[in-house]
Specification:
Length: 168
Amino acid sequence: MTKLVVMGVAGCGKSVLAQRIAQALGCPMLESDDFHPPASQDKMRAGIALDDTDRGPWLHRLGQLLADADSSMVLSCSALKRSYRDQLRAFVPELRFVYIEIDVQTAAQRVAARSGHLFPISLVTSQFATLESPVGEEGVCTVSALQATEAQVAAVQAWLASARAQVS
């Protein structure tokens, strides 16, 4: 059973990649934005960055959903700080992360091009300020946001297969 979080800043392509990985694994995908309480959604729409107090209950709920799943699951979630990732790992110790690296200019361009999304372009720089790169953490695969989605999926599948082979 694989439980995986696709993470990174706004505009990196988390939702698209998470959906494609879930399809490849034949498992459900959860979009973390769907679980933000209304007050947090209102803050983001107003261009106010969420803080640890806002994110705590949200991460707790996401961790519980991952832990309660009796099958593989893919979650799209920013998981910007190590403490956020550790909070999720507390629920699922074997949790793996796919980190999508992107530069601030490309992320801003992508967020600006979205219509109807609750996250405004004004918050992109705050995401980079909050980001604590997971590169070097155990159980993390890094892919470039500039790669085609198919190449990202292939890299993740190869990484997961390699991890399974090491366990056996």
